[in-house]
């Protein structure tokens, strides 16, 4: 199909707009900013509400849900979160899972991405096609299947079940392969001529050049595994193995004493959001790159 | 993403000994396999094998006790599938309701997130405005947060005394009890014009054992709050894709048509839109694929309630397996969902391939992120 279907319409009248351009530009700018500010509020105010209400008493949160200012300031929800729930345990589990999964993904995805980009081995084309196919498999249809495998090989309800299935991801392999293909091969060839083995070349010549892609992959893996929810649902049922998202979901859907306890729940959700938020602010451009890489994977 | 031409000789030459180079080739062959082995094992073990196992389970009546591969597990053939489509009963009714809910969800989410994303991208891309990167960050931020955490925030905002109802009260509207309200919005609209009960023509007889009246309910009020949450979280990602595409539209083209007297809408409709059409396709199909996978939000916010109006196939398959212990039927629902999503993915890849092949050379730009 042609991209430009309709040519720009030929104007029927001369351009009288030219004279009015200045005031119109001002109006446009004003309207533009008004729209931007309005949507910035739409996208950010829920977080303001979250922070404000996490610091309120329960009656205050119920009476003034829109106000960002707690009156009185009340930190008991956070206190109860740490004393009365398993929140610290969930946080520890999340940290463990996230660190191991991120390390695993960065290392294994780069290895595979490098092999697919550079090494000439039999079955490479087929392998890459298989990885592209795997990327199309939607996560939610894997819930029951994953449970079956974890159950069958005996790692259901263990740290291994929580971590090992997440250690490699097809999208990460794809990102790394694309990156390795974009850098020149001359350095590696020089190293190989000097007698360095394949792994040695990969480890000390190629990886140092791949810093931007490695950072992107680290951040995406961190964010993905920190936020991962459905997998924990079918990998563990022992509350001592819950990660933060699983614990939060349990907090909301389970019964938790009396009342709605919104300040407590909002506080828990807030603490779970902060690490990713910090990384997002610092490494924003890598997130943007990741989003656009992801766009391409389809 | 074509594999470079080196691949072809390498694959055919693996077996033939070639003077001095063959040693290097041989080691490369081995190294290549060693490098991909961990990923292949993990993806094979936790992706491919499970799919095969689940297919087997979908043909059985396994209840979660012991191994599904024991001899005592009843083999039921296609029963789990026919119960979803042809056999009248609760199983079919639930499945049809979940399909209906997800169809309405798609019909609302996909156009809304696409339009909002494109609109935001156009505004952020405006050359006369400053502070773009701040606004871009603000709009994108919800996309990177945890779905569970953000669902909690929206649960609070949509609670009966929550922020949304307060805002509605400010403009004189009486907000509903969002998560307790199972009324379909199309039924509500019909109620406004005085149609409160199904006309006899619609009272029954719809496909799948659900009456036409039920099919035409529209998303429930509760589903609307999940829809608004999803539109809110996904628009930022799609905005980034549109932004990348808009940056590829030559400024000169837009200015030339402005000089020619085309107004803002004409320029958008006849210059910008045709230029970003590939991204439009991409966003629409990614949205279609993604919106059949809604799960986390349903799990946290509504668990399919009220009156099953937020039940989706993904959540239904989970519930059937892990709460009703009917793993066979749960797996069957997963496979039907898998089929729906794979079909959409194939359509998307076909559209992208067609587009890449048919574009005239001078218009062939790099799609976002492809390198």
Automatic annotation (TrEMBL), chain A:
Keywords: Cell membrane, Membrane, Sugar transport, Transmembrane, Transmembrane helix, Transport. PANTHER family: ABC TRANSPORTER PERMEASE PROTEIN MG189-RELATED, ABC TRANSPORTER PERMEASE PROTEIN MG189-RELATED-RELATED. It comes from Micromonospora mirobrigensis. Residues 91-283 form the ABC transmembrane type-1 domain. Residues 1-20 are annotated as: Disordered. One of its GO terms (cellular component) is plasma membrane. GO terms for biological process: transmembrane transport. This is Multiple sugar transport system permease protein. InterPro entries: MetI-like, MetI-like_sf. It is found in: Cell membrane. It comes from the Bacteria.
UniProtKB/TrEMBL annotation, chain B:
Belongs to the binding-protein-dependent transport system permease family. This is Multiple sugar transport system permease protein. It is found in: Cell membrane. Residues 99-348 form the ABC transmembrane type-1 domain. CDD domains: TM_PBP2. The chain crosses the membrane at residues 30-57, 103-125, 137-158, 221-246, 275-295, 327-347. GO terms for biological process: transmembrane transport. Residues 1-24 are annotated as: Disordered. InterPro entries: ABC_transporter_permease (IPR051393), MetI-like (IPR000515), MetI-like_sf (IPR035906). Its main location: membrane. Keywords: Cell membrane, Membrane, Sugar transport, Transmembrane, Transmembrane helix, Transport. The keyword Metal-binding does not apply. Coiled coil: none annotated. It comes from Micromonospora mirobrigensis. One of its GO terms (cellular component) is plasma membrane.
């Amino acid at each position: 199909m042609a991209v430009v279907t309709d040519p720009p319409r030929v104007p029927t009248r001369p351009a009288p707009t030219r004279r009015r351009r200045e005031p119109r530009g001002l109006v446009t700018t004003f309207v533009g900013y008004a729209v931007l500010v309005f949507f910035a509020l739409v996208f950010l105010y829920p977080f303001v509400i979250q922070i404000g209400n996490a610091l309120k008493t329960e009656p205050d949160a119920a009476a003034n849900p829109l106000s960002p200012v707690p009156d009185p300031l009340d930190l008991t929800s956070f206190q109860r979160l740490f004393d009365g729930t398993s929140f610290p345990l969930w946080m520890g589990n999340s940290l463990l899972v996230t660190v191991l999964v991120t390390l695993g993904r960065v290392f294994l995805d780069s290895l595979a991405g490098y092999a697919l980009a550079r090494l000439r081995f039999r079955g490479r084309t087929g392998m890459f096609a298989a990885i592209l196919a795997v990327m199309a498999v939607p996560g939610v249809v894997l819930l029951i299947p994953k449970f079956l495998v974890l159950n069958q090989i005996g790692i259901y309800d263990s740290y291994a079940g929580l971590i090992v299935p997440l250690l490699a991801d097809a999208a990460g392999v794809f990102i790394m392969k694309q990156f390795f293909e974009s850098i020149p091969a001359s350095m590696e060839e020089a190293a190989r001529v000097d007698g360095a083995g394949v792994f040695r070349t990969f480890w000390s010549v190629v990886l140092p050049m791949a810093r931007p892609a490695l950072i992107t992959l680290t951040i995406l893996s961190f964010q993905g595994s920190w936020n991962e929810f459905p997998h924990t649902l079918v990998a563990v049922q022992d509350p001592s193995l819950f990660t933060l998202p699983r614990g939060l979901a349990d907090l909301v859907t389970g019964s938790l004493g009396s009342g709605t306890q919104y300040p407590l729940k909002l506080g828990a959700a807030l603490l779970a959001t902060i690490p990713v938020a910090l990384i997002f602010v610092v490494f924003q451009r890598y997130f943007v790159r990741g989003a656009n890489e992801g766009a391409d994977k389809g | 993403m074509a594999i470079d031409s080196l691949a072809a000789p390498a694959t055919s030459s693996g077996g033939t000994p070639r003077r001095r180079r063959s040693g290097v080739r041989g080691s490369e062959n081995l190294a290549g396999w060693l490098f991909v082995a961990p990923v292949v094992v993990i993806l094979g073990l936790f992706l491919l094998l499970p799919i095969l196992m689940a297919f087997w389970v979908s043909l059985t009546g396994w209840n979660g006790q012991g191994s599904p591969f024991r001899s005592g597990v009843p083999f039921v053939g296609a029963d789990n599938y026919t119960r979803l489509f042809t056999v009248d009963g609760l199983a079919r009714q639930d499945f049809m309701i979940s399909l209906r809910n997800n169809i309405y969800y798609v019909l609302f989410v996909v156009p809304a997130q696409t339009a909002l994303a494109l609109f935001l991208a156009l505004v952020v891309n405006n050359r006369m405005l400053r502070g773009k990167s701040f606004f871009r960050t603000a709009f994108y931020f919800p996309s990177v947060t945890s779905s569970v955490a953000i669902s909690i925030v929206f649960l609070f905002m949509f609670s009966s005394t929550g922020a949304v109802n307060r805002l509605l009260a400010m403009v004189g509207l009486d907000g509903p009890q969002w998560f307790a309200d199972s009324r379909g919005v199309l039924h509500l609209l019909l109620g406004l014009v005085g149609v409160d009960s199904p006309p006899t023509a619609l009272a029954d007889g719809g496909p799948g054992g659900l009456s036409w009246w039920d099919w035409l309910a529209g998303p429930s009020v509760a589903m609307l709050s999940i829809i608004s949450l999803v539109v809110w979280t996904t628009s930022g990602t799609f905005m980034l894709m549109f932004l990348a595409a808009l940056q590829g539209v030559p400024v000169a083209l837009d200015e030339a048509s402005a000089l020619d007297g085309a107004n803002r809408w004409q320029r958008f409709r006849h210059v910008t839109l045709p230029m970003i059409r590939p991204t439009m396709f991409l966003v629409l199909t990614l949205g279609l694929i993604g919106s059949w996978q809604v799960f986390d939000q349903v799990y946290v916010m509504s668990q399919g309630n009220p009156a099953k109006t937020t039940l989706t196939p993904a959540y239904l398959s989970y519930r059937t397996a892990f709460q009703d212990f009917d793993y066979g039927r749960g797996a069957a629902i997963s496979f039907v969902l898998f089929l729906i999503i794979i079909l959409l993915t194939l359509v998307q890849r076909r559209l992208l391939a067609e587009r890449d092949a048919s574009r005239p050379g001078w218009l062939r730009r790099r799609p976002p992120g492809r390198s």
